[in-house]
Every structure is written in structure tokens, then in C-alpha cells.
Amino acid sequence: MSKTSEKTTPLHKDSLAYNKKQSKANKLICDALLEVISENMAKAENKIWHGHPVWFLDGNPIVGYHKLKDCIRILFWSGQSFDEPGLAKEGSFKAAEVRYTDVSEIKIKDLKRWLSKSKKIQWDYKNLVKRKGVLERLK
Fold it and tell me: Of 26, 32, 110, 125, which has the fewest Cβ atoms less than 10 A away?
């Protein structure tokens, strides 16, 4: 992977353990996602949330990935606001997703652009319950 302007932080041990549990093909996808996300979201907190690797900025979920029945899905919580081809609407809020069945499907250039936008364009999921299901734009 190419160098980024952010300092790379060590890969989170729980995210590595999550990846290790995957099938060989899915582990390749998860490892690639973990590497790119970690090097481009170095200031974000990475932890296992609802059983999956997720990155947070100021307590707000930004990006994460997990195993579905037939693929690995990466989810951008504010992704519908990125105005980007390749991201599909997910759920009733502002999230968008991409699904991968093979590591060769990951377009690193697109992924890095989406990660960059995820730092700049955020909806406040952290306070969603407090606001009774109303999302407000943060950045």
C-alpha cells in the first residue's frame, strides 16, 4: 500500500483476531481493508463494535467491515453524503456500503477517496438515540 500523510498506527489486535477467523478468501479481503483503513484513519479509534471492526472519530462510527453470508461488506456510516459511484445505499439513515467477494474487487484508489471523505463528511450517529432518531450533520 502507498504512503499516506497520516502516521500509521499498529493494527488493533481484536481486528486482527476477527480477520483470522475468516475463510482464506475472506481473510484476504479483511486484511486488505484493515491495512488501507488503518493507514488512512490513523487518528481514529479502532475497536470491535457489535462483533465487527469499526473505526470511530470522537466517538462517532465512521467505517467498518464485517462478514455477511456471501461477502465482506464495508460500511461508511455517512457514505450516502459522499456523492460517490460505487457506494450503495444501506439502511434508513445515511450509511452506504460496498460488498466484496474477492480481494481483487477492492479498488484501493476509490477506498482511499471514500476514507478521506468519511473524515470530512459526518453525521452524528453518536447522539442518534439522544436525538430520538434524528441525525444531524457534523462536518
Answer: 110
